[in-house]
Design a protein that fits this description.
alpha+beta; 2 domains; six-stranded mixed β-barrel; 11 strands
Length: about 270
Amino acid sequence: MGAVIALISVLVVLLSGLSSGLVNDGVSGLKALPATGFAFDEGTMTDNAFSRSVVDGDQIAAWQYADGIAEAEPMGVNIVNGALPDGTQLDLTLFGIVPGGFLTPEVSEGKTVGQVDGIVVSEPLKEAGVEIGTVITLDRSDVEFTVVGFTQGQSTFGHVDVAFLPVGLLAAGQTEPGAPTQEQVDALDFEYASVVALLADDGADPGYEALDAAAGTMHMTLTEAFNASPGYEAETLTIGLGLIGAAIAVIRIVRIDPLRALGGQR
């Protein structure tokens, strides 16, 4: 009985570690952002909402002029397939941001977001052979981006490494193959994004329900938005149920009378 309890305890520890690892690998890119919340398009399904939501210029502007909101910027999210020059396949989550805005990531090496065809990628991609100057070609569109910097530590979304780039470049798939130019991006007149990233004033209560109603959006705090990433809610629910089951098993075992468990008599 002691051995069984010990094994179950080990299982609980392993499940806890697995849960922590899954959370970090699933939303470390979101956790690293200085945003306090996000505004999604009204009525967006919460499951994988970052990929489903589309906000327009009017919705973005409504939040930019809202009282109690220090910063409000468009943010695009798109999961893509890419390839290195040697043919190595990569999956990337593109985070489109405003260069120089509050979402601009600090870098551990190279330059931050700003170059029209440049991307800042998650530091663990170095293990795949990515380095400063590496050209990554997007599948199907053949649009080319050059790595100009690395984030500080891991940055992932939906278990896929993040690449930061100017938000207008998320429409670069509509340009000609090769490295996009500023003229091409400007010609797209792209005023849409996935969400509005928000930074509330310290201690302020902006009145999110009223702001959502006026902008036609749906607000989530940063931690609530974790559930809007691919698979996050299902994964954490599964691990949570496993931990509860292991805990119940331990409780039931320790309540068994030792003599009866060994076939003895009281």
